[in-house]
From TrEMBL:
Protein's name in the database: Cleavage stimulation factor 50 kDa subunit
Keywords: mRNA processing, Nucleus, Repeat, WD repeat
Chain positions of WD repeats: 130-171, 190-225, 278-319, 330-363, 414-445
Pfam families per UniProt: WD40
Compartment annotation: Nucleus
InterPro entries assigned: CstF1-like, CSTF1_dimer_sf, WD40/YVTN_repeat-like_dom_sf, WD40_PAC1, WD40_repeat_CS, WD40_repeat_dom_sf, WD40_rpt
Domain of life where this protein originates: Eukaryota
Keyword Methyltransferase among UniProt keywords: no
Region of interest: Disordered: 54-85
GO biological process: mRNA 3'-end processing
CDD domains: WD40 (cd00200)
Length: 469
């Protein structure tokens, strides 16, 4: 559904509630997935617009024709996903084009020349804000525009935080106190699940946050309203382990304790799965992630495989068998240019793959699981927004490490948590991170520009010189 259509239906729903037609408003809200306001929050803006329009000379309306095409989302089972809305597409294009994406072909060309002077990218993160749950902080997600980040916990709560307020926050409070700071970076806390939160995702264009839980539901929240509960939900018979919106916003992938990946239409809640039974995973799904343009998606499972799928027809493209030495892969991420797949697994390795050929490009041994016995928690790895760096777990469970994605050199260790780091989320628009830990805390990290300036002024320029063998 286009943004103009959402605005129109929102006006209609508000007007119906304002005029007392609550049942009719709820029906439209459920059909369009647009939140229905409370009676005391509804507005009669639609009537005001109409009165203003009809008060022009001659009584003619100033309404311009609005493109109200039928829902562009043809069912996946019939051969296609939805078109991306203009606002969503512009945002996605901005993310794709904001920086050069990871391309190791360029690096190989440089290394094949007699010499190459290349100043390596550098980064330094510092903690700017700490949010505290009542139990383990299990997952986090940044919004597509980078303005918000949400954290989910074993205590069943979800916190929504304002990134700009956290960035400008002076972390002078004691870490054991609550988040009741004057600047109020925590702008909303949602309570609607009955069991721990497993995953979160933001709608690409609408103010909607989605959550997945062990209670078998996917819930949808309007984070611009004052409501603390979801306005709509999907009920499944299995624990929902992972979710991811398609860039069009009309579809959402879901991986559960069941071996079949679901693709839901978020307007009708109609569910789709791959037709060929032999193409499915054979165990619970650990993670599903779309590419930025929505053309393909990746999945990883407890059956120790990674699969690449065509999102347009839900057909399998490739299967990576035992990519992590017969240990389950825990996270997957497709690079912006769709050339590479970043994965990590319980073998303690972070690996970069070429998607088309399935070739392993390199691996990084994090050391996780090699000290202190078996680690029962998922290992997490993610690119930063420029894909110049990979952030993942360290052999010290409470520490994260930043690696150069081209040279695999360690850039920085991120210390501060008091227990195992379970999840790492990166902003799509800037060098900002949210790390989630079993110490109940989510730590917001942003770029330490002062340190970088001091380093650049005191250190000589770093160059890499390579010779042709």
């Amino acid at each position: 559904m286009k943004e103009e259509q959402r605005d129109l239906y929102s006006l209609i729903i508000n007007q119906l509630v304002y005029d007392g037609f609550l049942n009719e408003a709820i029906k439209i809200s459920e059909s369009t997935m647009i939140p229905c306001p409370l009676k005391n929050e509804a507005t009669n803006k639609l009537l005001s617009i109409y009165q203003s329009a009809t008060s022009t000379p001659g009584g003619r309306s100033n309404f311009t024709s609005m493109d109200l095409d039928e829902d562009a989302g043809s069912q996946v089972g019939s051969g296609g996903t939805s078109n991306i809305s203009n606002s969503g597409k512009n945002l996605i294009d901005d993310i794709i084009n904001s920086k050069d994406s990871l391309d190791l072909d360029d690096l190989n060309q440089q290394n094949s020349s007699e010499s190459s002077n290349k100043v390596q990218p550098t980064v330094s993160f510092l903690t700017k804000f700490i949010t505290t749950h009542k139990n383990a902080c299990r997952c986090a997600k940044f919004s597509w525009d980078g303005k918000y980040v949400a954290t989910g916990s074993s205590d069943t709560s979800i916190k929504l935080l304002d990134v700009n307020k956290m960035r400008n926050y002076n972390q002078t409070k004691n870490e054991t106190t609550e988040d009741s700071a004057p600047s109020r970076p925590v702008i909303r806390t949602f309570y609607d699940h009955t069991q721990p939160i497993n995953d979160l995702d933001f709608h690409p264009s609408a103010p909607i946050l989605s959550s997945a839980s062990k209670d078998g539901t996917i819930r949808f929240y309007d984070y611009k309203s004052s409501l603390k509960r979801s306005f709509k939900y999907i009920q499944d018979s299995h624990s929902i382990r992972t979710i991811n919106f398609h860039p069009c916003g009309d579809m959402i992938l879901a991986g559960t304790d069941h071996n079949m990946i679901r693709l839901y239409n978020v307007n009708t809640f109609q569910s789709f799965t791959a037709r060929k039974v032999n193409e499915h995973h054979h165990a619970a799904i650990n993670q599903v992630r779309f590419s930025l343009d929505g053309g393909i998606f990746a999945s990883c499972s407890k059956d120790n495989t990674i699969k690449i799928w065509d999102a347009n027809n839900f057909q399998l493209i490739n299967t990576f068998n035992a990519p992590h030495s017969n240990k389950e892969p825990t996270t997957v991420q497709i690079s912006r240019n769709q050339k590479y797949l970043l994965s990590c697994g319980r073998d303690s390795m972070v690996k970069l793959w070429e998607i088309t050929s399935g070739r392993l490009i390199y691996s990084i041994n994090t050391g996780v699981n090699q000290s202190g016995g078996q680690n029962k928690n998922r290992i997490s790895a993610t690119f930063n927004y420029t894909e110049d760096f990979i952030i993942t777990n360290d052999e010290q469970p409470s520490v994260c490490v930043v690696y150069n994605s081209r040279t695999r050199e360690q850039v920085q260790k991120l210390s501060g948590h008091n227990n195992t780091v379970r999840y790492i989320a990166a902003s799509p628009v800037e060098n900002a991170l949210m790390t989630c830990s079993l110490d109940h805390r989510g730590r917001f990290w942003t770029e330490d520009t002062l340190t970088l300036q001091q380093q650049s002024s005191s250190l000589p320029t770093t160059t890499i010189t390579t010779k042709e063998e």
